Amino acid sequence: MSPMLQIAAEEMENPLIPPIPELVIGLIAFVIVFGFLAKKLLPNINKVLEERREAIEGGIEKAEAAQTEAQSVLEQYKAQLAEARHEAARLRQEAQEQGATLIAEMRAEGQRQREEIIAAGHAQIQADRKAAASALRQDVGKLATELAGKLVGESLEDHARQSRVIDRFLDELDDKATTAEATR
Question: Rounded to an integer, what distance in angstroms lies between the CA atom of residue 96 and that of residue 184?
């Protein structure tokens, strides 16, 4: 072949289509590499992908379980908080009732003590009045006896006579005091 023909023949070959022997060798090499990868590498890849899928699904399940548990804990917390508020309100109400009862008891005790003090004061005043009246009666009786003895001119040493004169004199004084008060 002439060099020109050779160049023309080379030009006729399509550079995109490889020669058949290269195509066969490439195809055999591809099948060998693909077979090797399918036997050795593909199971490992599938295993890793399956583990990742299970881990992701397990993570999702764990997240859902954690969310459910968190929701449950939140509801328990809210229930406990509501119960604590109710208990606090009950204790506050109890304290107010006890305070009102204590105030009422203290007022009643104060009223009772006041009444006792007033009664004791009245009794003391009455006793003092009787003692003063008795002392006054004796003093007035002595003075009246002395005056009556001077006026009558006789001695009123006799106790019975002295008592009659004193009683009569005091009765006259009481009558005069009563009529003086009535005229006012």
Answer: 58
Residue 178 vs residues 40, 76, 169: alpha-carbon distances, Å: 141, 88, 14
Q: Is the pLDDT of residue 41 over 70?
A: yes
Q: What Cα–Cα distance (Å) separates residue 59 from each residue in 47, 55, 56, 66, 101?
A: 18, 6, 5, 10, 61
| Non-local CB neighbours of 169 within 8 Å, separated by 6+ positions | 140, 141, 144, 148
**3-class DSSP state of 14:** coil
- Which pLDDT score is estimated for 160? 67
User: In whole angstroms, what is the distance from residue 90 CA to residue 84 CA?
Assistant: 10
**For 158, which DSSP code?**
-
Based on its alpha-carbon atoms, the radius of gyration of the chain, rounded to whole angstroms, reads: 66
Q: Does pLDDT of 11 surpass 70?
A: no
Compute CA distances 76 → 9, 54, 67, 71, whole Å.
90, 32, 14, 9
Q: Which residue has the tokens 């006579």?
A: 161
**Mean pLDDT computed over 150-162:** 63
How many Å separate Cα 122 from the centre of its chain? 49
Cα separation, 57 vs 49, in Å, equals 12
DSSP type of residue 31: H
Instruction: Indicate the pTM of the whole model.
Output: 0.38
